[in-house]
Task: structure prediction
Amino acid sequence: PQHVVLYPLVSKSLRNIAAGKDPLEGQRHCCSVAQLHEHYSLGYPDLDELQKNPQPLIFDIEVLKVEAPGSYQQDPWAMTDEEKLQAVPLIHKEGNELYRQGKVPEAAAKYYDAIACLKNLQMKEQPGSPDWIELDQKITPLLLNYCQCKLQCEEYYEVLDHCSSILNKYEDNVKAYFKRGKAHAAVWNVAEAQADFAKVLALDPSLRPVVSKELRSLEARLREKDAEDKIRFKGIFSQ
Result:
């Protein structure tokens, strides 16, 4: 046990953090001892009592998780440039594993972190320079994986935006056309979907079975939608 006079203030900060508040909420910019005597209440009865009557404390620490050495992963903002480059393949692999497990939103978050690392590095390079292009070519497959997750999460307009940004730079990216075609089909942009799928076949004829399946699915959905519309609007114009 230790005689910890300033612990009430530390505990208040920790409780603020747990509640999503500013850890220094309610504290003024003066020394801790002055704050200790100046504050009438810390907002917690147990801490007020401990502040009035300091006493030896025993800390009971519960181990929630044990991580292997080297397994802790910093947030991208806290990494050096070298650490970002080293982390990207690991984060990419984690995203792939989560996707295989069916944890699609979690996989998308991993791909997003990897993209953020590379985008941060890319911002420091001259657009169009060899280093910028090299980073962009690493970003593209991650962004396509992210789009695949967003397709499954039915966030189609985000897929349209990202795939279009890829195709503005890489006009022969088959995967971007295919994913954009699926997103167009999902939001009833029929002509755009058909154009994207036609581009997929022009670039890679071996994908005809997959594209044909997507087009049949689109046609079936259109027939179903037409039938629903006829029922919904039946008699409107004869009234």
